[in-house]
Amino acid sequence: MAEMKLEELSASNIVAANSLTLKPGQEQFVAPVSYSAAASVVNPNTSWQRVVTIDDEVVGFIHGNFDPDSEHEEFRACLWRINVDADAQGKGVGTFATRALAEEARKRGFDRVTVIWEPGEEGPEAFFHRIGFTDVGETQYGETIGALTL
Hints:
The protein is of the alpha+beta class. The protein has helices at about 15-20, 35-40, 95-105, 125-130; strands spanning about 5-10, 45-55, 55-65, 75-85, 110-115, 135-140, 145-150. The mean pLDDT is about 90.
């Protein structure tokens, strides 16, 4: 397999990031990349957004948020959104992106990264558990809060 690379989300790759496809049933668990792009405008100092490329083709997107002053602990260093193209799923793209986010969190002085997901058969729970996140709580809406200790 070709080498995976990480690039900042930019005008030159946002269309490709927005065009990432999903497997059937995943739509309800993943918001469009454009939602994350809007967040970077609102929170430019805390938002960390990258695309994963293979052979210069965008195959994944990750959005992290780093806000050490957040009143909610689960939002201080969190994986806000991750999308991997349907054809690239199961090939290590999500793991690669999440490890990069974890490394960025370490550099910024955090000792854990959190993520929130909606439970469901086609949802991301198995992926998050497989890469080391453990359940640490639940939101008032029934979503699972997971944490990865760095």
